[in-house]
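Researcher: I'm comparing several assemblies side by side, and this is the next one on my list. It has 994 residues spread over two chains. Same procedure as the others: predict the full complex and return the structure.
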Amino acid sequence: MAEHGKAKRGIPPKSDFNAWYPAIVEIAELVDKRYPIKGMDVWRPYGWKAMRCIDNLTHAEMERTDHEEVRFPLLIPESLLEKENRLVSLLKRAREEGVDPSELRDEEEEAGFKKEVYWVKHAGETDLDVPMFLRPTSETAMYTMFPLWIRSHADLPLKTYQIVNTFRYETKQTRSFIRVREIHFFEAHTAHVDEACASRQIEEDLEIVGRLMQSMSLPVIISKRPVWDTFPGAWYTIAIDVIMPNGRTLQVASCHHYKDQWAKAFDMTYQNDEGETQYCHQTTYGMSERLLGAVVGMHGDDNGLIFPPSIAPIQVVIMPVAAHKNPDVLTTVESVSETLRQSGFRVKVDSRDLRPGQKYWDWEIKGVPLRLEIGPRDVENGNAFAARRTGGKEPIPLDDISNSVQQQLSLIGDELSNRSHSHVIHCVNRLNSLDQEIVDGQIYEIAFDGTDADAELLEKTTGLAMLGEALTPYETEQVCIITGKPTTRKQHIARMY
Amino acid sequence: MAEHGKAKRGIPPKSDFNAWYPAIVEIAELVDKRYPIKGMDVWRPYGWKAMRCIDNLTHAEMERTDHEEVRFPLLIPESLLEKENRLVSLLKRAREEGVDPSELRDEEEEAGFKKEVYWVKHAGETDLDVPMFLRPTSETAMYTMFPLWIRSHADLPLKTYQIVNTFRYETKQTRSFIRVREIHFFEAHTAHVDEACASRQIEEDLEIVGRLMQSMSLPVIISKRPVWDTFPGAWYTIAIDVIMPNGRTLQVASCHHYKDQWAKAFDMTYQNDEGETQYCHQTTYGMSERLLGAVVGMHGDDNGLIFPPSIAPIQVVIMPVAAHKNPDVLTTVESVSETLRQSGFRVKVDSRDLRPGQKYWDWEIKGVPLRLEIGPRDVENGNAFAARRTGGKEPIPLDDISNSVQQQLSLIGDELSNRSHSHVIHCVNRLNSLDQEIVDGQIYEIAFDGTDADAELLEKTTGLAMLGEALTPYETEQVCIITGKPTTRKQHIARMY
């Protein structure tokens, strides 16, 4: 702690985002990157608490929407992959050949992700008969079990989720929370009676995402990914991208509609009302620690982190000032902190024997949204002096402290949402023609209704990637940027993480 | 759900514990054992929720005692093992030769647990330069990082914990929660300025264990393990064994005092007040999903599980009765459930269109502590009819429902504690002489002050294992069962899981 003041001076300006981000995650003590495996950071208490606060928002949403939490084994036997491999290669061929998957014959092929998993082939001194891999995600594990749990329509919808560690052998450059090899991962998996019910699940997922993003004040673009960027085995993928400060987009969540494609591969059927055997229709919804990366990246400033109150590990830090001059200071601090804790706030009292400026810096770096100072004069006046991490200071009355603090935290949340909104307006611009200059750090909205080849041309010309199609089209017809044809299809192109 | 009635008839009598236990964990839907890796069960929602309730008790204790939660990587590079191997082999030799470890020269040797870990030697299509293993426990990972975090006495005590998945390549027969290959594990790791401070930590750990065991009404024996059963690298180990219904003991928790032994191996030092470099003294405290296994095993009966209210996933199930006869029934049920939820109880309303008897069975099997029935006459009388899973039924007033429910739950907790107490009295008997008959399912308390060879003789003669020395000795001198010498040292011998 004693070093934070010094450390602060080591924070690069946020305008140099690529230097600021990796520095701040360590200076604010979210993670320690010195663990001797690249891409596997140690979560320090403050970072882990922030992640747990995000998880708690997720748990609450899952409870509200009747999802049940499960916990599947980490290890998956290679032998279970057969079905998945067949499915993925079939869909891949169907796409390449532009035909319906049901028209194609089954051919086994290795799924690409085998190249990205960690393998367990030895245990103790034994060579395992069947190699196992560390889950990169749990479709294979879960869909092996779901058929045992689903018999009739009464067992549907099956809505499950888990929050677990998953693994990916990343060969690209790793970045804390953003690209790591052990991933703190949320995955919801559902099964339904038909395609329409599964589609409604996707709508519910998007509503949940919307609530989560709003509570964390994150600026997002929601897109139906282009076919070539659809999750293997999915009918379609909807991705939620946060617009980072440097204008690059970070996919923090995705929802996949599987139709009955996985169900057919895993023989996941149920008896309907009439006693007929039907295939289930499925969805998944994933999020990860990237949510924390987005919060860090989006809200922080030159002085450190800024946590949205909804997920701040410490929402309010209380500092006694000149406590030696009046014994009422410490008793007031104690009673205020107790009252706030009782009201459910996450509170920390900082009574360390340090200069106030030093303490301010510490909590500024750590992004605590609200600082309350209580000194002899405040006690006399029945006030606490409130300073918001987003700017602005004022006295607030002690006799209604919980409500006052709630108001202050709401102000901070609103301010962060406003900043995010401005950021979107600043970053996202319309591109009407390929002749227009592409500005670094900008995201472009385009009218586009071309083919895959047109998209490729677009990506090559602009140097940007296609995020996919906005869920809300243009209200009036526009001119497709490539083909010149009239269209209402709105798309975004950006530099992606 | 519709199958529970049938399933119930499939529950073996609890007197046949070895048949009852594996059956009930599946019938009550705690786990599914059909996942295709032996010893790696799927946690179903009900089982996982029970485990999370136990974890929440643990989190609360950790918060109360100022431990901070961290999260370390699952994978540990083999290269980090060197220090640990040296430490363990040194201590082993010291014990074998009966000398102080500091008198021995360092010699490298392979730690035994290498034979029990899962190895990752391949990632994607790459052979890894440095093999990694899945943590069986996190000493090696953590003590690689702690020296980076500890510089001066101001950084001490360092009190950390995590709740994570750990792995052990079990070759013995696996049993849900009791002996598994992926273990849901709690581990606290602390560092202190000296041996006395570390000893106080062990005392705090034992106080925490005491509170947890009491809140789950579990009957335990606490023992300082004999030297040969001390954790590798520990100065001493204190183990907490639950007395299972069949009289076998199940170690559910253990605390290890490491003195400065690991600190020396990992060069974990700090500057004291006088600026001198000192080695830290350390402790660990571990628990696992065995806690749930103990709860299942200890409290259940011929009709299913019985959850202590402190960790019951559902504490109260409310059943509307003959709701068609009076519309007030459903509104009362709704308002009671809302009131109870607001008071923090975990509540489920069962409005399924099934015979009441069927519903009773379902919740009996799942061990819900309290059932409330509300029918037309109850509404008229302003009562709910309360039935305790531990036996006993009575009407309770609706107008003070939260307090009444709390009282009912307390009665249930007390009843379970009484049963545990009786169980201890029934199972644990004094053994005064080796001539005495050893009865199956009994645990024996003995006065013992012999050598390791005497202990071996004792174990061979009785066919039981030494749990170790009770923390509270006899108040007056007794006669050692082997040597005949006077001693106040109290020990227990039992059949261990």
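Model: For your comparison table: Chain A has a mean pLDDT of 93.
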